[in-house]
Amino acid sequence: MRFLVLIHRWMGIILCLFFSIWFLSGAVLIYHPFPSLSQDERLARSANVDYSKILISPREAISAANISEPDRLRLIDLEGRPIFVIHSFDNTIITIGGDNGKKLSSFTNEAAGRIAERFSNKPISHVDGPIEYDQWIVHQRLDAYRPFFRVHFKDVDSTVLYVSVRTGEVLQKTLGAERTWSYFGAVVHWLYPTVLRKDWALWDQTVWWISLLGVITTIAGLWLGAYRLRILKQAKQYFISSPFNGWLWGHHILGIFIGLFVLTWMLSGWLSMDHGRIFSQPHPHQEQVSNYRGISITEASESVSTDALKTIKSFREAEIIAVGGKAFVLNKIKNGLQLYEPRNNQSLSSTELTQTQVIEAVGHAWPGLNVISAERLKNNDFYGKLRSGSLPDSTLRIFMNDHAQTWVHVNMESGEILSTMDRSRRLYRWLFNGLHSLDFPGLTNHRPLWDILILTLLTLGFIFSITGVIIGWKRIFYLKN
Predict the structure, then answer these.
(1) Which of 278, 322, 331, 403 fits as disulfide partner to 300, beta carbons 3.0 to 4.6 Å?
(2) How would you list the strands of the sheet with 160-164, edge to edge?
(3) Cα–Cα distance between 420 and 426 in angstroms, integer?
(4) Percentage, residues of the chain above pLDDT 90
(5) Cα–Cα distance between 78 and 106 in angstroms, integer?
(6) Any residues with CB less than 8 A from the CB of 46 and at least 6 apart, and which?
(7) Residue 419 burial by CB count (10 A; 0-12/13-18/19+): exposed, middle or buried?
(8) Per-residue pLDDT averaged across 141-165, rounded?
(9) For the whole prediction, is pTM greater than 0.85?
(10) Any idea of the CA torsion for 200, 205, 207, 213, to the nearest 10 degrees?
(11) Mean pLDDT over all residues of the chain?
(12) Which residue, 93, 92, 82, 86, is CA-closest to 56?
């Protein structure tokens, strides 16, 4: 018991400050998420590719990039020029001019300003950079696109756009109000300062260990709190009585009522940093993706000629994909996605993936397993329709017969494997999404009931944590004197 008291006391002195910040910033984060530029907005504001200027075939672009096997091949517009964006498996990007087949060199901040001005249809103020990192572009998904030009605008919203030096694409957008709120929300909640977050491995380890120590501290506190009450009950005193006075009394009594929630929140917050340590990962392996495609992107590109691309005529972005050994062109337009199939290497015709095609491709990706059944997601699906990170309505869920009872989720519009979910991952859904944001059936979609409940719990958790902070400071002040 003495050991538990020491753990709870000294770890609590440090961690209660984190606890109070997490509870307060969690409330902010509910209504003011981290700034982002959605795929829909990016495509809606992007220019159409001028198909008349496409003189280089996708296969020639791959050869010019000198990549033996690309992971992705996209065609976009860059200031009126068609540009092939070739992604390698090692997370590098090479851009090839679709009009001349030459690698693009880095462009100037003046060009970035023009791109951003055309994207937003607003006058710019000035352009910074290029920069590798700042607070709003620290996520590792942007690593292949670094560095960025940061473009400021002369508008009341204090808009800032980030233009990739490598592709000329606008990939992040922030507003002044979003940035301010995020400093009180996402940045402190996720321990997201740029100096830490830009090193993903260091950030991952730091947050994981702090969260784990928070779980241990909370368990120790619950045990001690229950132990104190058990002794008082044996002495025939009231169950809610406490042997403490002042702030310690408040911390003890509040801990009895709110401590279990604090534990579940700390536990689920720790699990948010799991990243495969305990639970399975939600994404297929590279080998599974290759087997699902059936042919390489290089082989798929051989079926799509320059003339074939010109038959689409109107698109914001096109990507060559493969599903089940067949090549397709995914046309990304303002209002959604369109799928095309090559015809005799000279034209493209509109098509749709069939359930049979996708099931067979998934069967190749998971050899040795059989598909039991498949179904489209329902609007109230417990695992696919989440408060955050929901799967699109076009998702097909495929049930496998393996021991882990794996589900494979495929977007029938794009042919992409969106996620895999086995029993381990389904348990994670309840332990993380359920406990951390009260994402439970019948609650999360009933607002403002959900808001009232979670804000009440967060407020109680914040008050409880503040009592711990005050007790800690009083203890330190006592030792100093």
Answers:
(1) 322
(2) 124-131, 148-153, 160-164, 170-174
(3) 10
(4) 74
(5) 12
(6) 76, 77, 119, 169, 170, 316, 317
(7) buried
(8) 95
(9) yes
(10) 180
(11) 91
(12) 82
Cβ–Cβ contacts within 10 Å for residue 223, how many?
14
Q: Look at residue 236 in the predicted model and tell me its pLDDT.
A: 56
User: What is the reported pLDDT for 224?
Assistant: 83
Evaluate if residue 475 carries a pLDDT over 80.
no
Nearest partner of 73 among 293, 295, 290, 321, judged by Cα: 321
Q: What are phi and psi of 331, to 5 degrees?
A: -95, 120
The amino acid at 353 = L
Given pLDDT bands bounded at 50, 70 and 90, which one contains residue 239? low
What's the topology of domain 106-184? Nuclear Transport Factor 2; Chain: A, (3.10.450)
Residue 193 DSSP class: -
pLDDT at 324: 95
> Do residues 193 and 184 make contact, with C-beta atoms less than 8 angstroms apart?
no
Domain ranges across the chain? 2-32+198-277+448-480, 106-184, 358-421
User: Which residue is listed with tokens 């947050």?
Assistant: 207
d(CA 187, CA 431): 23
d(CA 234, CA 457): 31
- Find, among 214, 129, 226, 134, the residue nearest to 172 by Cα: 134
Is the peptide bond between 367 and the residue preceding it cis, with omega within 30 degrees of 0?
no
Q: Cα–Cα distance between 193 and 188 in angstroms, integer? A: 8
Closest CA to 349 of 331, 334, 325, 323: 331
Give the integer Cα–Cα distance in Å for 131 and 121: 23
The model's pLDDT over 388-443, given as tens digits with 9 standing for 90+, comes to 889 999 999 999 999 999 999 999 999 999 999 999 999 999 999 999 999 999 89
Categorise residue 422: left if φ over 0, alpha if ψ from -120 to 50, beta otherwise: beta
Residue 465 binned pLDDT confidence (cut-offs 50, 70, 90): very high
